[in-house]
Design a protein that fits this description.
The chain has 397 residues and is mostly helical. It has one domain. The chain contains 15 helices and no strands. The longest helix is centred in the last third of the chain and has 41 residues. The chain is globular.
């Protein structure tokens, strides 16, 4: 019996690796777009989890510091295949952009790709993907007028006060309002999250997260080691930043440019290269690490900046399912889910829409891609190729 179980386990892990790698190769557009790709692949197509479990996982990721889309991907991998499944899911989604950015750093640092037409097309792909995700999630996250109003308030609040702190504040307020409005609601959760990690492992992960956060700055001062200092800077950036890759960029700049570890020009060139690759924006660390210490430095920096996200999601999720199925907190979660919808719509407008749709031809391409995705139901990788081609054609016109 052991051999068939091992083969089944290996097959499951290979499936997770295949699906996550394909997403890592085709998921352009930043964290909000990634959530749209995940929703389409894991919820709509493969049905690895139900709508509410996915919405709850997204809501949890909004509370935690670090790259929200990567944490959602890790969480789905752990639910599907345990701790190894989470690691495999992370590797598949992250490694393509890590390899690309290491190559950029080694070979193409002086190559300006920020104005390339195909990159513009990939931004427009994000518009179509996020619009599709919002329409699908709205039916489940805001089915009644009260939650529609909460989503609207979250949208207005995050548009008028665009910051990571305002997002956290909106979520907390929505949780309080949701608790008051729905604390006696009879609505039930569609299914429990199957999370094959014990609370003991979760507590250990949280303890390691805080231990690294506290001890690394001390070790940095005591040892004077360049590598410890480098690990500390990337780990702290991944631990303390809410809002995703765009928010972490100024923090990384303050860590490395004034200290002379790399020049402002090299930093900006890497930022342009990061926009050209799929996957999480936190893989910008791979470029920075490679500039400072070659390909080994790139891998080292990648591990350092993503380690907090892994420890946090593994640490919190074993306790999260007990909370989300507790009648006293269901109402709060319902309010948070509605707020997350508003935040997604806000992010859809800015920066996704405002940075992508600047002329009539852009909107026309977005409409075509949306139709291909929603009505013709073409796979995301086809949409990505069509978007890149369309953006190139627009640049020639």
């Amino acid at each position: 019996m052991a051999q068939p179980q091992k083969e089944s386990r290996l097959k499951l892990l290979l499936e997770i690796l295949f699906v996550s790698t394909r997403l890592g190769l085709t998921s352009f557009g930043g964290p909000i777009a990634h959530l749209g790709y995940f929703h389409n692949e894991y919820v709509r197509r493969r049905k690895w989890m139900d709508e509410k479990s996915y919405a709850d996982l997204v809501a949890l990721a909004q509370f935690l510091p670090g790259p929200a889309s990567s944490q959602v991907g890790i969480g789905i991998g752990v639910m599907r295949g345990g701790l190894i499944g989470g690691i495999v899911s992370f590797i598949g989604f992250t490694l393509p952009s890590v390899i690309a950015l290491i190559l950029f750093a080694l070979l193409l640092q002086s190559f300006d790709v920020s104005d390339a037409g195909w990159i513009k097309g990939l931004k427009i792909v994000a518009v179509a993907v996020v619009a599709h995700a919002i329409l699908g999630m709205a039916k489940n996250l805001a089915p009644d007028l009260k939650r529609k109003a909460l989503a609207l308030l979250a949208l207005i609040g995050t548009l008028l006060w665009p910051s990571s702190l305002s997002q956290i504040g909106v979520i907390l307020i929505a949780a309080l309002i949701g608790y008051m409005l729905y604390k006696n609601s009879a609505e039930t959760t569609e299914g429990r999250i199957k999370f094959p990690v014990t609370k003991k492992i979760g507590a250990l992960s949280l303890a390691l997260f805080f231990a690294f956060l506290v001890s690394l700055p001390i070790l940095r001062e005591v040892t004077g080691s360049y590598w410890v200092a480098m690990f500390d800077s990337f780990y702290r950036a991944g631990s303390l930043v809410f809002g995703g890759g765009h928010v972490v960029l100024p923090l990384l700049e303050r860590e490395f440019v004034p200290t002379g570890w790399l020049t402002e020009e090299a930093f900006l060139a890497g930022y342009g290269a990061t926009q050209a690759v799929p996957g999480p924006l936190f893989t910008f660390a791979a470029y920075l690490g490679t500039v400072m210490n070659g390909w080994a430095g790139g891998l080292f920096a990648t591990v350092a900046i993503f380690l907090p996200a892994f420890l946090l999601i593994v640490g919190v999720l074993p306790f999260w399912d007990a909370l989300r199925t507790n009648q006293k907190v269901k109402g709060a979660i319902m309010g948070v889910n509605a707020a997350v919808l508003g935040i997604l719509i806000s992010a859809f407008y800015t920066p996704i829409w405002t940075s992508s749709i600047t002329q009539s031809a852009d909107f026309a391409l977005a409409a075509i891609l949306f139709s291909l995705l929603v009505y013709w139901k073409l796979p995301p990788w086809v949409i990505v190729l069509c978007g890149a081609l369309g953006g190139t054609l627009i640049a020639w016109i």
